[in-house]
Amino acid sequence: MAFFIGKSAPARTLSIFAGINVLLLISAMLNQGELAMYSILGIGIFNSIMFSNIYTLAISGLGKYTSQGSSLVVMAILGGAIVPIFEGCLADVFGVQQSFIIPVFCYVAILIFGAYCTKYLGL
């Protein structure tokens, strides 16, 4: 359904999937038991297109700087190794469910990036 709403536009689809992940994380934070568990499991489904779309959108229009841009995007993957450390520290202090606020902010950033690309790059 989300693919149809995205109308094969990578930026729009990225925004929709990031927004759904924000909602799933909030659901996991507010609910208990199986509903929280399935909310977390659902996030994996909507992560499926994220990296490929982020990568494609980030290097579009760079021209002769495409190789440098693509190397910077690949180096940014380090964030995927650093963010869990902060989330783990937050989980130790406040609890696992409350620590999901960190990925909420990450997905909001992805949503904003997708919305920016939709509006200003027309992708």
Shape: globular
Task: Compute the CA-based radius of gyration.
Answer: 16 Å
For the secondary structure, the number of strands is 0
- What is the distance, rounded to the nearest whole angstrom, between the alpha carbons of the first and last residues? 19 Å
Structural class: mainly alpha
> Helicity range of the residues?
over 70%
Spans of at least 5 consecutive residues with low confidence: none
Number of helices: 8
Mean pLDDT: 89
Q: What series of H and E elements makes up the topology?
A: HHHHHHHH
Give the amount of beta strand, in percent.
under 5%
The largest sheet, given as strand count, sense and whether it forms a barrel, is: none
Describe what you observe in this structure.
- With 123 residues, the chain is mostly helical.
- It is built from eight helices and no strands.
- The longest helix is centred in the N-terminal third of the chain and has 21 residues.
